[in-house]
Structures are given as C-alpha cells and as structure tokens.
Amino acid sequence: MRSTRSPVGAIPRGPAGPASQGGGSVETLLARDFGPAIPLDRAPFAGLAPGDRIEAWSFAPPALRRQAEARLAARGIEAQVRSAWKTVVHALLEGEGPREGETLDLLYPVLPDADPERFLRELHPAAELWPGQATLRPDPLPTPPGEAPACRLLRGADGRETRLTIPVRVRAAPHGGRALAACGWLRIVPAGAAAPALDAPWEDPVERALFAAFDTLAETIEHHGWRGPGPHFDRLVLRLEAPLQDLPLPTGAECLSLAEALHEELYFGALDLLRAAAGLPAGDRSLTPGEVVPRIVPVADDGPVRLEITVSPPPTGAAARRAPATAPAPELETLDRPMTAGEIAAALEGFGGEALVVRSRRGRPVQARVRAGRGPGVVVTGGQHANEPTGIPGALLTARALAAEGIPVALCPLENPDGHALHMRLRETAPRHMHHAARYTALGADLAFVAGGEGALRPRLRDAVGADLHLSLHGYPSHEWLHPFTGYLPHGFESWSLPRGCFLILRRDEAWADPARAALEAAAAALEADPEIAALNRRQLATLERYAPSARPARIGCVPVVEGPPLPSPHGAPFPVTLIVETPDETVEGPLFRLLTRAQTLAATAAARAFRAALERGACPGA
Q1: Which of 12, 277, 378, 516 is most buried, with most CB under 10 Å away?
Q2: DSSP class per residue in 277-315
Q3: What does the alpha-carbon distance between residue 547 and residue 481 come to, in Å, rounded to a whole number?
C-alpha cells in the first residue's frame, strides 16, 4: 500500500471561479496559525525528561508520527505515536496486523450510552484487508469507568492480547447534538513510575483548527445576522492547511483520507450551523446560504496547521454565460471517468430534439432536449448532485435508447452545472475524494427543494412530454463516508456511510402503485441479471452486514430498494412516480465507472419499458 499526497499548494488561496456579479470585496473572517502538527517544542512535549514514556494519539500522518518518535527517542524518551482516527485500522496497517498464517480476533468495545455498532464501524475494512485471518466480535468485558475505550486484539491459538486505546471524547456537534468524537490523547508515565501522570484527551492542532472554524462561523453568523434561509453570501471559503496524506487501500475503492474527512466535516458542519441559525429543522433542504467551499491543502511535514476563512457578499445579479464550448462527444458506453461540461454539451446536442434552457445561480445554461414520440413520455435527469458522475452518461444513454424506441423523452443530463464546475476544479488535486461541496448548487441548495433556479426546468420537461414517470439518476460514496470529529457517521446521512451496491428508490402516489411497482421490479431484475453488477452488490452487501448489521436494507433479490411517497416539490405538483437509481460512483474511475454507467442505463430503461407496458395494460389511476 502506498501513501499519496496532493501537490503542496496546488489549491489556490482565493476563491476559484468567477467573481460575484456586482459583489463587494472578499472579507477575511479568520487567518490563524496553529503551529506544527506535533508540537514537540511546546507543552506538554517540551517538558518531558529522559526516561519518561509517552503514548500519544495524533491526527498527523504516519511519516510525521514516526519522525516524532525518533526525535523523542533521541532525547531519551520512549514514545509511541498512534493515529487518533481510525485508530485500530491504522495500527493494524502500521505493524499490529496479523502475520502470515496468524489469526487475529478483534474485540471491539460497546459503551452503555453509545450505538452498539459505533466501534464495530471503526474496524472497517479490517476483515477485507486480512480475509480469513481477522474476525470481529463485541468485547464481553465492559470498559472501566473513566478509561478510554479500547479494542482488544487476541492473537493466534494462545490468545496473546494487545490493547489498542481508541481515543474519543463527547463534544457538542454543529448540528446541535452531542457526539462521541475522535480526539487527540496523551498518556505520560514519568521515569521510574508505574502509573501515568497524565492519561487524558489532548486537543492536537488539526483538531483545534477544525473547531476554531466552527466557532468562527458561529460568531460570524451572529455578527452578520445571517438569519433565515438566505442567501447570505456568494462564496464562503474554509481553507485548512495541514500535513496530510491519503492511503489508498487494496479493497474496493477504500482510501484512508483525513483530508477528505476534513472537507466533509467543514462543509456539513457549516450547513448545520447556518440551518440552525435560520430556525430550520435538522435535515431541512430549503437552506440557500450561498456556496460553501472547503479547501483542504496538504503541506510539507514541517509546515504549520493553518486556517483561513473568507467570505464574499451576495451577488447583485448573475450575467448569462455562454454554453460551454463543445468537446468531441466521447463513446458513452466505454467512458471511464466523469464527463467534462463540453463533452456533456456535445452529447446532448447529438441527442437532438427541441432545446429547453434555464439559468443557474452563476448564469450557466441548464440545458435540456425534448424528443417527440408515441404514448406517455418519460423525463430523464442526471447531475442533480454534481459529484455523482455516472448518472450523467447514464441519463444520456437511457434517453438515447428510449427515443430510439419511439418513446417521448425529455432529457436534462446535467441539472447542476455550477456544482459540476466546482467538482471538476476540486478533482484536479484530489480525484479520490467525494467533494460533497459540489453536491448542491452555488446557492448552497438542493435544487429539488427550493423554488426557481435550476429546478424550474423540471415542470417544463414534464409538460413537454406529458410524463408521469421521472427517472432521476444519482450516485453515492464508493467508499466509507465518515465524520470522525462529530460522531463518526455523517449526521443526517447515516445510512449512506457504507456502499451497498446499486440500489433503487421508488417514490410514488398510492394511486400509481401498480405501474410504479412494475417499474421497480423490472429495474431490479435488470440489475440482478447482469453478473458483474450482481457480484458487486453481493460483495458490498456482505460488507455492510459485517460492519452495520442494523442497516440491513429491504431487497428485491440482490438489489436494495426503498419505497415511499413523493416528496413535496416547490416546482408544482411532484411526479406521481419517480424512480431514483443509485450507484456507488463518487470517486470511481476506470472499469468500475463503466460498470456503474451500465447499471444506471439498464435499470432506467427497464423501468421505463415496464411502466409504459403497465399503463398499456390499464394499470393506471382509475383503471
């Protein structure tokens, strides 16, 4: 396994992209240096004496932790510096893992006031990294009061034991609740002593910088009076510099990345604070604060941890932009990476039909095409959440196939061009990261839940082809999604934290139950009939069962399914039937990208055909 580092300084300091239309100057809310990631020249490290022993848990990368151990050893201090997040997995990778032919029983702690699967989740993906050697089970011994929880490692037939402390503390989280969060920790045993003089949480510089960002945002919200849904600003940039390294793992698309986790924490933490200030309930998606952009910048190991927060005022208007210059349209069936804006425009132009356009927050065209046909039509969309890339070629391929059969189709393959532009910029330096800052529009909104803007195109598409079926193609994280500083699982998105294969979400009116169910079952059958897709689903579902048995989903065959009523829409009456196809596509490239694009197309086309067939049989309201 190899560590990878993004180019130092590769992400620009200022906000990327166009300036606010008519906006004012950028305001710096905070610029603060938190010192080195492991401050050996500061307390409590500076006060250590020869013969002392120290165990520390830090958010610094492995190489920097090894350097700290060596520098302390040169002072006559016995030191071990472990990772403060994904502690057990990092320890296994750094020497505690099973030797060849050795078994390792991992007994994870269960705390009385915590989710019983809390520390089981943290062990992911140990069993996949050491298949047949590592087993996972809850520890029958309780954690003594006042002690940090620990995972016990029992080795081989004789059960030789190693205890790995998992440093956590209870914190106030930006969403308003209390969270059991990863934290720095110090255990110092003075020379000649048997018991530690200090055994307690230690707020290391990365941790301090993150929570300083939350504190600064809370103060700024109060100072600027950012009440109500917004918009409050054009772009809020949270730039955090620290020594950071990604470690891709040899299982699935997994990657240990504190840089990615910090992006996620800053982005969703900022939205949580803004949502609370607006008086909106947790999970509400009508917030429209402006664009929130975390910029996580890896620096050299001797570089300081630094935080800079800037904000620009709301624009007074958005000038219309030209459509992106078309690039040669790629072969969609063999495409192995996210499409550029020019490629999407070229493919849409090649689809033909009548053009429909609205404008995004930043004035980019949101482009659609309508092809006439016979019978009830279908609306096909992709790119609502712009960091979910396979829905875009999937929508183009689906619309092409349905139009070839004479079915009326209204197609918008990229509903969120501002988010797509941000996603492509963020991918330049971190292609393996999820980049959920690009999920929403430049208004900071989910376009399906706020009036006007990009979402205003949907009712026009529906009216253009008389559609009662909306095929909405989406994606979700291809590897573990975690928020280590605010409770481990992503607040409000807990069920999305581990991939579960390609799955389906059906939203329908009760009166449309029969054709809707026909569409769902046909889509599931199409996915299960593909051997590669079925194998992916079974593999990921087995992993989900291992680490999150309580999250076991309802299924049709090997395809997870979720059913419910239509969600309220600010764009008029919602579609009576919406089928959402979800693939674990965030961060993927290569053969897996092609496979997931195929999954999008197979499920969507099968659903549309079955839905129309059911209508032709009379399975519709009032029949």
Answers
A1: 378
A2: HTTPPTT-------EEEEEEEE--TTSEEEEEEEEEPPP
A3: 13
Phi-psi region of 313 (alpha: psi -120 to 50; beta: other; left: phi over 0): beta
Mention every residue, 6+ apart, whose C-beta is less than 8 A from residue 102.
133, 155, 156
Cβ-count burial of 334 within 10 angstroms (0-12 exposed, 13-18 middle, 19+ buried)?
exposed
Nearest Cα to Cα of residue 170 among 223, 104, 111: 111
Strand partners, 82: 57
* Nearest alpha carbon to residue 400 among 468, 353, 343: 353
Contact between residue 366 and residue 341 where contact means Cβ atoms under 8 Å apart: no
Residue type, 491: H
Residues of the chain with pLDDT under 70: 1-24, 317-320, 619-620, 622-623
Strand partners, 312: 235
* CA dist 429 → 15, 337, 425, 620 (Å): 15, 15, 8, 50
pLDDT attached to residue 15: 35
- The predicted pLDDT at position 284 comes to 85
Residue 370 identity (one-letter amino acid): V
Distance (Å, rounded) from C-alpha 548 to C-alpha 85? 19
Q: What is the pTM of this model?
A: 0.93
Beta strands in 496-539 (DSSP E): 503-508
Please say whether the beta carbons of 597 and 335 come within 8 A.
Answer: yes
Rounded distance between C-alpha atoms, residue 474 and residue 546, angstroms: 25
Give the Cα separation of 314 and 289 in Å (integer): 9
pLDDT at site 254: 96
Residue 391 to residue 388: CA distance in whole angstroms: 7
Q: Is 270 helix (H, G, I), strand (E, B) or coil?
A: helix
Q: Quick check: 356 and 379 in contact, CB under 8 A? A: no
Averaged pLDDT score across all residues of the chain: 92
CA–CA gap between residue 240 and residue 338 (Å, rounded): 26
pLDDT at res. 166: 97
Whether the CB-CB separation of 138 and 120 falls below 8 Å is answered with yes
The identity of residue 194, as a single letter, is A
Q: Phi and psi at residue 217, in whole multiples of 5°?
A: -65, -40
Both tokens of residue 380? 């096909």
Per-residue three-class SS string for 458-492: HHHHHHHHCCCEEEEEEEEECCCCCEHHHCECCCC
Q: How many CB atoms lie within 10 A of CB 204?
A: 23
CA distances to 213, 218, 237, 260, 311 from 30, rounded to whole Å, are 8, 12, 11, 22, 10
Structure tokens at 443: 């208004």
List the strands of the sheet with 291-298, edge to edge: 27-36, 304-312, 235-242, 291-298
In angstroms, the CA 518 to CA 524 distance is 10
